Recover the amino acids of this structure.
């Protein structure tokens, strides 16, 4: 019973991120298909998913097409009650749905001024009064979420929920533009940037390069503010410590040096996503353990 999820470019498609996280964080079976959001064939490829007109879009195991992440969220929660995708208590669950809906339709100024990009952090970004109002609203909602939660944990309602999938792009925008936040919002941004699932999404997105870069601003940049990756680079020669790719199980054909050890991979994407952030991939870290 595997779903098909159709997404846009990982480094820039915030809606695709929240759709993917709903599968990744709750262990739901899915096959992901990347559509080139900025390519000439995007409309043609999306036409096969009619009436969906945006990414992400999902095909259920029954063959139904579903668009819009709110609809996807409710359908997945309904079909997988054991996954506990919403908070358990009524008050927290109500607030989580409210926050997801407001994210889906609101924060227009923040989203317009700060399109999600996971490449680097812009410096000297000028926060307008409208963007600041959105940030203040987010802080208010986070405070209310804290007041209603009864479960322990670092996420909006303690345990990870659908609401967190919706607010991961908010955290990415705050990080990517160096926006000033404090208290629960700052802690939440740090939690998101350190989350292994988010790190896997970003590491895989960085395997693609862009010229020109979408949404680029004429501002200085600094390194991405998340965890510093292990030292790693692609190499042409060496003797890998593994015979088979840690992701596919296929024979190795491409090499990378990670934390002083040579690892083998079946293709350049497996190699490069590891180079981008080896600690995001449990199968890679298992190879590096003594």
């Amino acid at each position: 019973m595997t779903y098909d999820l159709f997404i846009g470019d990982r480094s820039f498609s915030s809606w695709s991120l929240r759709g993917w996280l709903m599968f990744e964080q709750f262990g739901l079976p899915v096959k992901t298909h990347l559509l080139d959001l900025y390519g000439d064939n995007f409309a043609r490829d999306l036409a096969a998913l009619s009436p969906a007109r945006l990414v992400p879009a999902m095909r259920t195991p029954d063959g139904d097409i579903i668009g819009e992440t709110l609809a996807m969220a409710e359908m997945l929660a309904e079909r997988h009650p054991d996954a506990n995708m919403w908070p358990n208590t009524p008050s927290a669950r109500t607030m989580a749905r409210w926050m997801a809906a407001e994210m889906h339709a609101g924060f227009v100024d923040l989203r317009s001024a700060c399109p999600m990009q996971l490449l680097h952090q812009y410096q000297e970004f000028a926060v307008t009064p409208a963007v600041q109002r959105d940030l203040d609203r987010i802080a208010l909602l986070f405070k209310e979420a804290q007041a209603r939660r009864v479960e322990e944990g670092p996420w909006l309602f303690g345990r990870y929920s659908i609401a967190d999938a919706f607010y991961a792009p908010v955290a990415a925008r705050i990080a990517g533009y160096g926006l000033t936040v404090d208290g629960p919002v700052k802690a939440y941004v740090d939690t998101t940037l350190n989350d292994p699932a988010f790190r896997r999404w970003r590491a895989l997105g960085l395997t693609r390069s862009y010229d020109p870069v979408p949404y680029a601003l004429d501002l200085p940049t600094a390194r991405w503010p998340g965890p510093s990756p292990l030292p790693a680079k692609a190499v042409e020669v060496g003797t890998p410590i593994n015979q088979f790719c840690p992701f596919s199980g296929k024979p190795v054909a491409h090499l990378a040096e990670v934390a002083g050890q040579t690892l083998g991979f079946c293709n350049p994407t497996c190699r490069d996503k590891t180079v981008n952030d080896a600690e995001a991939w449990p199968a890679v870290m298992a190879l590096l353990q003594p």
